[in-house]
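Regression test attached.
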Amino acid sequence: MAKLTLIQAINDGLKVAMRRDPNVLIMGEDVGINGGVFRATEGIHAEFGADRAIDVPLAESGFVGAAMGMAIYGLKPVVEIQFDGFLAPAHEHLVNQIARIRNRSRGRWHVPMVLRIPSWGGIKALEHHSESIENWYVNNPGLKIVAPSNPYDAKGLLLAAIEDPDPVLFMEPKRLYRSFRAEVPEGYYTVELGKAAIAREGTDVTILTYGVHVHTALEAAEKAAAEHGWQAEVVDLRSLNPLDLDTIIASVKKTRRAVVVSEAPRTGGFHSELVALINDHALEYLEAPVARVTGFDVPMPYLLSEDFFLPDAGRVLEAIESVKTY
Amino acid sequence: MSTTQANALDMEQLFEVRRVLSPDGTLVGPEPDLTPDQLKDVYRWMVYLRVFDQRSLNLSRQGRMGTFAPFGGQEACQVGSAYWLAKGKDWIFPTYRDHGAMQVLGVPTKNIMRYYMGDEQGSKAPEGVNAFPISIPIATQLVHAVGAAWAAKIKKEDTVTVGYAGDGGTSPGDFHEALNFAAVYNTATVFFIQNNRYAISTPNAKQFKTKTIAQRSLAYDIPGVRVDGQDVLAVLQVMKEAVDRARSGGGPTLVEALTFRYGPHTTPDDPKKYRTQEELEEWQAKDPIERLRKYLVSKGIWSDADEQAVYDWAKETVNAAVEAAEAEPRPSVDAMFDYLYEKPTPELERQREYLKAYLAKKSQGEAKTHG
């Protein structure tokens, strides 16, 4: 098995999907000859040609809407949104059209498309390049939301998303694109959408998170073990919709304490929904209120203040301490 | 040529309004390439759609249907824009005022009525009828039309798509994005813009500065044409050229059809607040149905008996559709959850179970109250 970075795993996944199914194509800004600004689509134009590696005019509403037109016609577009913040112009198509077509045509048409979205902060980028778009869409019925945290899952979830007959927002942790390598099988395999993974087993507290902050949580868990002898269980949600509630609730019932971590702004976030679900399904098991480690209710700051905003292992550790000593 | 010189061009002259029949039904353009049977078929469609439209507006006013968007006055556009499309192959992407064109392409009248009665099932076109569900968000459907034609091109199929919009629909960015994408990738898309002068109450003068919508085609380097939208033979002719050009690889066309809706924007709207009676009457004097009827009579292929028969048939057929639509059962609770994804998520299943249990309890309670 080859050791790949997360971006290499995505590139590999795209090529595997395109070799397997002639209806799969990629489109987006600079994804063709240039191979994408992060090089996620490198080599695809050369192997598959301009009809399947499409450079589009610079207009997200237009190309996301056009991709929907392609999808209902029988193609499977995998659309790259260059940066998370640039998804905003496509919002209308996502919420008013793409998410609703299967339902409003009572199944006559559906939209098998994937939006690959380099997501979240941590790379000291310009403004509008570091957004937590899951909070824009998680309460919008009809869109699946997937968020891998490592190269193996990135490829397997991407292939599952492409195979899925419904629209999927595929949030890529851009901060992890090249930060480490992991073993990734060659060829085709999928990781089922809607199944969480236990990234670290533990008995004292459950940390629920996804994407980039799985690693923040793991770091905090090691600190908690070293400093206090507490074993934190880290649940990598992998998919926000569909959500693996069973794994979440089983873990919380086991540890009786929970911390949720995401860098989205605090109010109305998906992290808050996790707290509500624990309230619905496991309240009587809790020894302490669920703690939230989140971003703040301010726009993602410019790069000099980015570290103020992003959750780090210290904040997660503090939350663990608060629920353990409640 | 500098832009100052270009701006001095008379766009209304450059994009001369194409016309075949004058309002009194006399030929002023080239004889249409239609058989007598086709001419009568076109006429029957326009009559049928007007009867349907008036009946639906009445149903809406009686509360037997929800809010309805009538197209009365725009029948020539509705029929002429869809008439040449290959059923089972070509696609239309309609607005809420294009359910006439949807019927011409093969959507049953009952479906349109169910849609406006509030049943999603109405948006499900029968297999083989590629009429996409009505788009209420303005101009979004234009980029979908481009995407579908683009997919056809990639699949090496000669499918044509028609994207519909009104004059107000030329203002959102999607109008520009659609035309630009179609031009750059040379997709087989016809943009059929019905300029009925008012976007609800906002007149053309407050919508755009240009004298015509068709002239915007110049900016995309694609053909643009203005047509008398009350002259079905002219619409048919313009659309035939545009559809043939698209199918043969000639790319997109921007069509601006000059027309007028006689009625309100939708049921609750009162057009007297923003339009004069004189303006309405001026347009009614150019009525598309009356115009074609006079032409058919002058050709000696239409009699008073034919006229009576076509209205009788239209009323009976529409009545049957109303009966069928009103006889449909209400949508089930399951239908609300079943179609969002191919397979409902576990959370959706939980919500469905909750609602069903609540409704069962509620109906038991009601049964007790009545018992």
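Expected vs. actual: identical. Chain B has two domains: 3-327, 333-370.
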